[in-house]
């Protein structure tokens, strides 16, 4: 089973989360490909999709919103999950955060089976306006990395388990899926 993990990231934090998800899907025996959402031109070769994006003041990253609009019809008959990365505090760890409006719209358009929000990371090494914000926040004693790799990986294992349970003729859900190779990163 081929799974696309598409992501939209500004500073690389969400891209890294997508890699963690791709690695877990691969470890479960799925053929996972991790790609920037903006680079995806066709989804016909995939059996399922995980789409994730960073969240900033302006909302869910534009590349993820465009992906959702562009492929809503093509993905109508395939399982889709969404994730967001962004809170710069431990709120995503303390409680399940409700989706922001753009994620709600994408959930409806893609008929997503689920969505989750993970903590974000803001590094003072970021460039442009994000770097300015990151350095200001760091000088005020805030910022840092609020992602929880174990939580991300656990969520990805749940996605993999659901996909494998839906795969007809696989018995334990793994027959014929092992040896798919490492998750492929296609990043331009």
Give your account of this protein's structure.
The relative contact order is 0.22. The chain has a single domain (2-166), classed as Rossmann fold, CATH 3.40.50.360. The protein is of the alpha/beta class and 188 residues long. It has helices at residues 13-27, 62-71, 91-94, 101-110, 128-139, 149-166; strands at 2-8, 31-36, 48-56, 59-60, 80-85, 114-118, 121-122, 144-145, 184-185. The protein has six helices and nine strands, in the order βαβββαβααββαβαβ.
> Roughly what percent helix?
25-40%
What is the 3D shape?
globular
Beta-strand content: 15-25%
Number of strands: 9
Please identify the oligomeric state: single chain
Kindly provide the radius of gyration, computed on alpha-carbon positions and rounded to a whole number of angstroms. Answer: 16 Å
Main sheet summary: 7 strands, mixed
Q: How many domain regions? A: 1
Question: Ends: how far apart?
Answer: 24 Å
In the CATH hierarchy, the third-tier topology is known as Rossmann fold
Q: Helical stretch count?
A: 6
Let me know the CATH homologous superfamily: Flavodoxin domain
CATH architecture call: 3-Layer(aba) Sandwich
Uncertain ranges: 171-181
Q: How are the secondary structure elements laid out?
A:
Layout: E1 2-8, H1 13-27, E2 31-36, E3 48-56, E4 59-60, H2 62-71, E5 80-85, H3 91-94, H4 101-110, E6 114-118, E7 121-122, H5 128-139, E8 144-145, H6 149-166, E9 184-185
Parallel strand pairs: 1-2, 1-3, 2-9, 3-5, 5-6
Antiparallel strand pairs: 3-4, 7-8
Helix pairs in contact: 1-6, 2-4
List keywords for this structure.
single chain; 188 residues; alpha/beta; Rossmann fold; globular
